[in-house]
Give the backbone structure.
Amino acid sequence: MPPELKSLRPLSVSAVLGLTQLCSALSLIRLMPLVRIQRLSMDTIFSVDGTTVNLPRNPASASFVCNDGIPNGVNQFHVTPLYDLLSRNFIDTMIQPEPKKDEISALLTMLQRNSFCQKTLIIADHGFESYNVIAHLLEKPNADFLIRVEQSRSAMREVAKLPILELECDISFSICTTQKNTDKQNQSFVFLQVPKKSKPGSKTQHGRWGFGNYYPVRFRICRFLLDNGEFETVTTSLPHSSTPEDIGHLPYVLVPGNWV
C-alpha cells in the first residue's frame, strides 16, 4: 500500500477519498423530474467523473506534483468513480497518481470488470470523449451512454461538420487504422493513428484503440441551445424513443456551473 494511503487509514472512507463534494455534485440528477427518468426506460443511471485529492506531502512518491503553479509541490491522487445517481452509491472507482492520471483508461477498466444486469445509462463529461470509449460502450451489454462532446475545431470530425444550431441526427462511419490509397478515398472512414506500442497515459490515451480495422460506429448527436445563448452537444446511444427534450435534461448533471 502506498505510504499516502497508510497515513490516511484511520479516516472515514469519505475523508480518505475526498469524494463528498463530488458525490453531491453528481447527485444533481434529483433536479430532473422523475417522469423523464421513467421515459428513458432505464433501470439505473451511472455517472463517471474525476476529482483530485490532496495527500500528505512526500516528494519521493509517484503522486508528487510540482510545476510553475505549485513550485513547492503537492501530493495528489486522481479519483475516477462510477457513481449510481439514483441510489447514490459508488459502484466502482479507480485511483491514480495525479501525474499519471488517465480518466479514459480508468473508465475502460471499470467497464471491463463490471457487468450490468439491468438497463444502464452512463453519463460522462468532455474528458471521456473518445472513439475507444464509445466503441467499448456500444459493445457493453445492457449499457447506453450520453457523453458531452466538444463542438469546436477539436471536436470529433463528424461532429465538427455539423452546423452550430439546435439539431438531432444519427451519424455513422467506420474507424480505419490504415491509410491505404483505397482507404483515403472512402469518405465514410475516420482515420485513427494507433501507436504500435501504446501504453496507458495521457500522451497516448486518444490514440489507443481496442478494436480491429474498419470498425463500424453509429450513434446520435443532439445539440441544445442553453439559456445563456451557448450550445451544448452530446453524443448518445439512447434510442429515438428518448426524445431530445428528455435527453436535454441529462447533460446538466455534469455542467460545473450548475453544481451546488
Remarks:
- The chain has one domain: 3-258.
- The longest strand covers residues 74-84.
- The chain is about 20% helix and 30% strand.
- The longest helix spans residues 103-113.
